[in-house]
Amino acid sequence: MKMKERMQHWAIRYRSRQVQQGTFEFPASIQGSKRMLITLPHGIQTNSLLLRMIAELPVIFPSSDLLIVVPVGCSEITRKTGIHAVSPELNLTNLIGLPKKDFFAKVADFKASVLIDFETHKNVFNAMVALHTGASLRIGLANVWGMPIHNFLVKSDFQTDELKTYRHMVDLLTSIQLQSAASKMGQPD
């Protein structure tokens, strides 16, 4: 492991010790969420199938304000998904290649209550975003980072097929929302 990568992993360990483990009620935390932050896999701009799946999220969560955070190419992501995206300026990184504190402050200022990380491999940028969100519910795939970066892990039978894994995540989120809508319809006013 190179020195830069070691320093990045040290930064993750250091920040993860500072994160307060909030409690969340599942599935109520995701069903009632007004602000959701989404992180995508590295190099996502070229994966049009996943971007189409991500474009379904505003339909799944119509009353939520969604924000996508990517390392680069936010205008392309916004154009392809219709969801607002942000990324750090390329010239504003620290010595170990991570965005400066101002960017993470912008992420925290969004005040997301839910983070959804679609990354299937360990990604330092996504981990640091997750640790800076302040979201009480941080959803990620099993066998990637685990606690404390993600506190709700989704295990997919398709871990070796990334597109099927992404579809599984979107389908799971859809079923949670449909369950919420069905229970609301059954309640008297």
Shape: globular
| CA distance, first residue to last residue | 59 Å
Strand percentage lies at 5-15%
Q: What class would the helix/strand composition place it in?
A: alpha/beta
Order of helix and strand elements from N to C terminus: HHEHHEHEHEHEEH
SS element count, helices: 8
CATH level-4 homologous superfamily: TPP-binding domain
Explained architecture:
By secondary structure, the chain is α/β, with parallel strands linked by helices. It has one domain (31-183): 3-Layer(aba) Sandwich (Rossmann fold), CATH 3.40.50.1220. Helix content is 43%, strand content 13%. It contains 8 helices and 6 strands; from the N terminus they run H-H-E-H-H-E-H-E-H-E-H-E-E-H. It has helices at residues 3-18, 28-31, 48-54, 57-60, 74-81, 101-109, 124-133, 162-185; strands spanning 35-39, 65-69, 85-86, 114-117, 137-141, 152-154. A 6-stranded parallel beta sheet has the order 3-2-1-4-5-6. Helix 5 (74-81) links the parallel strand 2 (65-69) and strand 3 (85-86). The longest helix is centred in the last third of the chain and has 24 residues, at 162-185. The protein is globular, with a radius of gyration of 16 Å. The mean pLDDT is 81.
